[in-house]
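Team,

Forwarding the record for the chain on the shared tracking sheet. I've put the sequence and predicted structure together so nobody has to dig through attachments.
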Amino acid sequence: VVITAGGTREPLDPVRFLGNKSSGKQGVALAEAALAAGAEVILIHAHMDVAPPSNAKLHSVDTALELRAATLSAAAGADVVIMAAAVADFRPSTVSTGKIKKRDDAADPVIKLVRNPDILVEVVAHRAAQNLSQLIVGFAAETGDDEHDARSYAEAKLARKGCDLLVVNEVGPGETGQEKVFGRDGNQVEILARDGAGPVQASGSKRQVADAVVRVVAERLGTT
């Protein structure tokens, strides 16, 4: 089982980066749950606030492009790929070799962004090209808006990405104003299936959610 976790960091200069709020807790919990189920686990992780399990094979990366290279390489021999990392959609088009200075006599800097590759879509395409028997699980941190709720956006993403399962959580501030998911110890998700089965709902600690995801994966593989 190949699992990606944590948040990528896209450098602006030697001291600054574009990042996200991912703590890596859910990805680490998935690795622990898969190990407990008897799987051999490769954990490809970007920045995390928690330690990875020592009995997984670890590969540390920083940027989206580094995560892409490591994931495509590891996925070639995997039975299951679980894409739980928070991967930057964009990166700066250029990286300054020196620290970007803030000076009163200079204009504000303008940072041009370019699109990062869609790693999940590439993993799905590689499976098809190589005719692999492989289960691919995506993650989607979604928000709703005036037009659609988070579930609707997730269903559209599942159809667009082509993965087998999509684990969806709604992010943003909750009723108390605190972040619902990022950095917290609990989670609430829906597991959507491309074949229309389910959805399966899971909530509790991130390890409990991870156990639920691994159970669905095991059922699909026929190993339960």
